[in-house]
Amino acid sequence: MKILLIIFVVVISTNCNPCQFYDLLTCADFLGSWKFVELCEKAHVTHEFTKGNDSKTLFLPSRGALDSIPPAIIEMMSKNKTFLKEVIMYHLVPQKLQCINMKDNSLLPTFQGEQLRVNRYTSEQDNKTLITIEGAPDVKEREVYVGSAKIINADISTLNGVVQIIDTVLVDT
């Protein structure tokens, strides 16, 4: 009972973010994206998500995003492990990047090898900042996009970086 109480107090005193005690991949599993964890295991890239400290950003597809991967993409990933690895690694950036730190017109290198471009816009009406990555055309106020994916839960701190939950799976075209 004492151990349970101590764990409860620690979680409450740290803004209720249990992910801060775990690496990116354990956090992904904790957040319900176990399919993403399985894909990482199949691609043999789990070490990229578990090593290092406070230095990576994972654009984590939500469970719904993973459930709605088009059948053609699923088939390609199951037949071509290189493609699977590229899709997974396209979601990982080798720097901790919180939304507030995204600079206009900067390029984010991914572990896949391609770059994501960050764009910041300020609304003239109410001076709110809008952020896109790779120039998503359908940006709305106070929303952040990565490619065509909307960030639906931002800035979840982990032991080795930060998680940005997105509403779709990123595929480099």
- Please, how many domains? 1
Helix content: 25-40%
Strand content: 15-25%
Taking all residues together, what is the mean pLDDT?
Answer: 80
Number of discrete helical segments:
7
Strand order of the largest sheet: 2-1-8-7-6
Strand and helix order: HHHHEHHHEEEEEEE
Please give the largest β-sheet: 5 strands, mixed
Can you lay out the helices and strands and say which pair or pack?
Elements (H helix, E strand, L loop, with lengths): L1 H12 L10 H7 L3 H9 L3 H5 L5 E6 L1 H5 L3 H9 L1 H9 L2 E2 L13 E3 L5 E8 L6 E5 L10 E3 L2 E10 L2 E6 L7
Describe the 3D structure.
This protein has a single domain, classed as Roll (FAS1 domain). It has a 5-stranded mixed sheet with strand order 2-1-8-7-6. A 3-stranded antiparallel sheet has the order 3-4-5, with no helix packed on it. Residues 4-14 and 135-142 have low confidence and may be disordered. Strand 7 (149-158) and strand 8 (161-166) form a beta hairpin. Helix 6 packs across helix 7 (81-89). The chain is α+β, with helices and mostly antiparallel strands and 173 residues long. The chain has helices spanning 2-13, 24-30, 34-42, 46-50, 63-67, 71-79, 81-89, and strands at 56-61, 92-93, 107-109, 115-122, 129-133, 144-146, 149-158, 161-166.
